[in-house]
Amino acid sequence: MADSLFYIFAFFTVACAVGVVANRNAVNGAMCLMLCLMGIAGLFVLLDAYLLAALLVLVYAGAVVALFLFIVMLLDMQGGVKRPFKKMTAVASLASLGLMLVGVSMLGSRGHLATLPSPAAAAAPVGAVLKNYAELLFTTYLLPVQVMGFLLLIAMLGVIVLSKKFEGMEDIK
Amino acid sequence: MDFFFQLPLWIQGAVKGLAVIAVLFPLAAACSMAERKISAWIQGRPGPNRTVVPWLAGIPIIIPFLQRLGVFQLAADGGKFVFKEDVVPGHVNKLYFIAAPILAMIPALSTITIVPFGAYFDSAGQLVPLVLANVDIGLLAVLAISSLGVYSVILAGWASNSKYPFLGSIRASAQLISYELSMTLSVLPVFLWVNAPGGQGTLSLFAVVQAQSGTGFFNGLWLGIWMPVSAFIFLVALFAETNRQPFDMAESEADLVGGFHTEYGAFKWSLFFVAEYAHMIVGSGVFTLLFLGGWNPLPWIPLTRVVHGLSHWISFAGHPLFMGVLGVLIFLGKVGFFIFFFMWIRWTLPRFRYDQIMKLGWQKLLPLAIGNLVFYALLIALIQK
Fold this sequence. Notes:
The structure holds two protein chains of two kinds.
Chain A: H1 2-22, H2 26-46, H3 50-75, H4 87-109, H5 130-138, H6 142-163, H7 169-172
Helix pairs in contact in A: 1-2, 2-3
Chain B: H1 2-6, H2 9-42, H3 62-69, H4 71-83, H5 94-110, E1 119-121, E2 127-129, H6 138-147, H7 150-159, H8 163-194, H9 205-211, H10 217-220, H11 223-226, H12 228-241, H13 253-256, H14 266-291, H15 303-310, H16 320-346, H17 354-384
Helix pairs in contact in B: 2-4, 2-14, 2-16, 4-14, 5-7, 5-14, 7-8, 8-12, 8-17, 12-14, 12-17, 14-16
């Protein structure tokens, strides 16, 4: 049951991800991104990481992609004209294909795939209990969380500075 | 009964899910009639009271009573929505125009899976919640799924390809995203209180009701009395999230014709409305569970105690079925009051302007919610020390 559900969700996620890249219409792309995130949330649920699944849906699918859609609709992007084919595109795609092949072969030759821990041997899933998240966030990962928060704050201030027009001294106060 | 439990698990789940939807869907439709009747009552007019099925009109007492109640009007409206021609205007984006009402229904009906609506003692003497999926992340899942409702509004407005729906959907989706924050922050004190030190940590709604169904001073206190500011912020945000007046940005009949569903008619339009009422029902249910003791009749008097007391007088009161039904009825009574409250507010407060809504959400409710969270975090730390 869990295996077949994994294949369904994995196929769904990958198909939607391809849809995001391949769609010319930006609205279709954003909707595919939303569905792709739902597929990933399904995979998280199969891994017993319910909190991550809920947060992914709440934050990304519920708010971030909705804002993407917002921007796409406000700017009224109906999909641009097909760009002419350049030699550079062919070189770039060949290079990225080669890099991907190298990566996969490295992964295979190191033997990481063959020695995946069996489900029975794996420890009890950390993600199933909410308390574990809280403990890790406030101990091991305290610094990364704080740094991320600080970066987001800087980004937010940057947006305010860029989008607000400062004309006189009164505006700066 | 044994036959049901021998069925495969997924068939059991499907049957339970359909049973809950079979209650929720007609209830949501009936809310539309309640809305018309209550509006009429508040405005001092009779409301829909003429429609009747011709070959039933001769039956005395019962039929005139139902006729005055508007029951046949509800059936006639429902029939009209189904049989009316479903026009798709020529200038719309067909795929998203048709998908939007469906997307409105999905979150509205799926959130009910996580909302418990009663409890009973099983044969082992264990208190079991009546819920489709008693998951540990309870409330977070409700918030996550209901946050997807914003897509139906955005897509409906955009796919309609005309200016009033577009303006309505932009306003409504900005409102939905803004008030989600205050809503989430306002319930955090509740879970700080429910998760006493030493526990595993849970966001389950059943655990919240359990924390309100003791008999001691703090155990039996309903959280709405203990955390009135949280309850108030949650309620205001709930009005905004369900697009009810005075936060009626999605429609704004006075300046936007009909808001995001201007171009919709017939069955698709009715889907939007049933979804809105289903959201109201589920939202009132969550509010009841969080702040009004769920299925407990009164503060400090939990349902278990009532059933225990009654079992001395009535022989069948000890049966699990009795407790389950009583709990569901009390819960539905509270939800019903809140639906009335939604309609009452509609005719009490005028609609806010868009800038007022943004000011209220970001400059008043959000700081209030953060201050409330800090205050209760300190207070709870002092009490539980």
